[in-house]
Amino acid sequence: MNIAIIGAGYIGATLARKLVANGHHVNLANSRGPESIQEIADDIGAVALRKEEAIKNVEVIILSIPFARSPELASLFSDVPENVVVIDTSNYYPFRDGNITEVDEGKPEGVWVSEQIGRPVVKAWNAVLAETLVSKGTAAGTPGRIALPVAGDDEKAKGIALLLVDTTGFDALDAGTLADSWRHQPGTPGYCTELTVNELSAALAAADKQRAPHNRDALRKQVTSAKTPVTHNERVALNRDVTA
């Protein structure tokens, strides 16, 4: 598959590495130009391009940029064919993104991103910590394999995202429509808690939309106020404890 990834941070670069390793052709782009990511792309086996070039002649575009910067990509999609699948991996954090009234009032993050870029999106790889994505993917059928949620309105597009999530080493769980994607936003039991597919299904069902933002902010406060750096395993345990 020909795939463009916009954003070369921890998640974007890791997805690029995993997808290339599984035989996909990946164009990698960011906001600073190909020169700034050439070394990363060479190491991965991806092609570093300007984002306007990266999205040409691809079947999938993965957006892995800070949530609040989504509106900057609106013009990018004007000439992208409608059958190209767009996958959004971002999450809303007010401390970083500033307050976005619509999202604060309950609009699902994926719905907001879709409106900003003027294209339907599938929500995937948003509910996974970078270290989990890097080191905890396993082969299909492995006992205790971690599962990740995938939400979207177009069944064909969602099906492609489900397959790609599996390719990156995780069981992919159909989490419903894009409007349902609030169930795996920050502060919910299915967000960055490293659950199996059955556990994740139960966690999505147990999500509380009103509590989620409070959980999200409480978790950040605990992490930033810790006297020593919070380890990956401690972060997972905190997520499970606060959102239970």
Would you mind describing this structure in some detail?
The protein is of the alpha/beta class and 244 residues long. It has one domain: Rossmann fold. It has eleven helices and eight strands. The chain has a six-stranded parallel β-sheet with strand order 3-2-1-4-5-6, covered by helices on one side. It has a two-stranded parallel ribbon with strand order 7-8. Helix 10 packs antiparallel against helix 11. The longest helix is centred in the C-terminal third of the chain and has 14 residues, at 212-225.
Question: Could you give a quick summary of the protein structure above?
Answer:
With 244 residues, this protein is of the alpha/beta class.
As laid out across the biggest beta sheet, the strand order is 3-2-1-4-5-6
The structural domain count equals 1
What is the gyration radius calculated from CA atoms? 17 Å
CATH superfamily: NAD(P)-binding Rossmann-like Domain
Structural class: alpha/beta
Biggest β-sheet: count, sense, barrel?
6 strands, parallel
C-alpha termini separation: 38 Å
Q: How many distinct beta strands?
A: 8
Task: Quote the average pLDDT.
Answer: 97
CATH class category label: Alpha Beta
Q: State the helix count.
A: 11
Q: Into which percentage range does the β-strand content fall?
A: 5-15%
CATH topology: Rossmann fold
Determine the fraction of residues in helical runs and give it as a percent range.
25-40%
CATH level-two architecture: 3-Layer(aba) Sandwich
Ranges where pLDDT stays below 50 over 5 or more residues in a row are: none
